[in-house]
Every structure is written in C-alpha cells, then in structure tokens.
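Ticket #4471: complex job returned nothing on first submit. Input attached below:
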Amino acid sequence: TQLLEQSPQFLSIQEGENLTVYCNSSSVFSSLQWYRQEPGEGPVLLVTVVTGGEVKKLKRLTFQFGDARKDSSLHITAAQPGDTGLYLCAGANFGNEKLTFGTGTRL
Amino acid sequence: DTAVSQTPKYLVTQMGNDKSIKCEQNLGHDTMYWYKQDSKKFLKIMFSYNNKELIINETVPNRFSPKSPDKAHLNLHINSLELGDSAVYFCASSQGNRPQPQHFGDGTRLSIL
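Support reply: We reran it on our side without changes. The output follows.
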C-alpha cells in the first residue's frame, strides 16, 4: 500500500511569515498534484508537477517535485489569511488511474 | 454553473437504512470517481468509472454499489448503513483515465445515528 505522509499535520503561523509543507513517500510517482480544501467544499487543484526536480510557482506558492519523484514540497511566502485551508498532496501511479492522497496539512 | 454537483449535501439516517447519493458533472469529462473522507480528513478513493465502465474498485464493502447511467452521472447506493460509514463522500471527475486534474464536488456529509 502506497502512503504519502505530509508534515506538519497542523501549522499555525502569523500573517507575513513563510512556511513549507512536506509530502514524502517511499514510492515513486509518475506525477504529483497539490490540492487545497476549504471547510464544506471539495479539494481544488493548485498544481501538477511531472518531472523529477521540477519547480513551479503560483504567485506566492512554490511547488517542488523531488529528483527521485518520491517527495514534494510546498512553500508559501508571506502567508495571508486567505491561505488557510487543508493542503493535500496526491501522487499518481504509473500505468494506473488512481490518485493516492496524502495525510493532509491544515494551515 | 456548478461543475460537479452532489445531492444531498447532508444526509442523516439510522443504522440499517439504505441511502443513495447522486453526482452529476457538466464538464464533459469521461471519468468519474467516488472518494470517502474520514474524520481525520484522509481522502481515499472508492470507485472510478470511465465511460460508464468500472475501472477502479478499491477494497470497499459490497454494501456500496456505484451506478453510472451515462458518463455525466455517477451515483452511489449504500445498503444496510453502519456507524462506520459516517464520513464525507466526494464525487470527482476528470478527462481521460490517466490521473488527470480532478474536479471535486462539495461533498455529502453522511451521519449515521
């Protein structure tokens, strides 16, 4: 069974601070997606990273896919109140239609 | 216009009852999914259909039966509801049967009394 562990599980910071969320697995994924979920709503896709070592930026959010495609990180610069939510990473398997979701980080 | 819509949003019922949740997407996608999110917010896939054909069936009790009358609809019927079935159930859709960006509904919160 593939597992994606996210850390930290909870994160409480002041407005304007920087933070990093980690998503780690012992399994290799063909691609990795990051979602954000707000209370009472479904997850919304933020980004997909495909190539090992790939870095993508979305305004103040920076996403990185590990070289070995087993891990990923999400860095938020100068956090704003609107950044609050549950951040979920999700790994896609080779030759499979299934997404494996991480354990989640609540910001 | 809502892209992926689920009904009902809330479902409160007693143990042993049978209930259904409906899902419709207007994105023109050919793949739909059902996920279960537990109280710890862990999101786990249950089923996936591509063009009305079942392609993913995780280890889910056979009290859960999905039905896809067409590629825009995927319903979930649950028989003999148990306390452990309490969770939020999400429907999602994507284009293609490779892991593509998935569009989620707002969830159905099922509470078993």
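Residues 85 and 96 of chain A are 29 Å apart (CA to CA). Closing as resolved unless it happens again.
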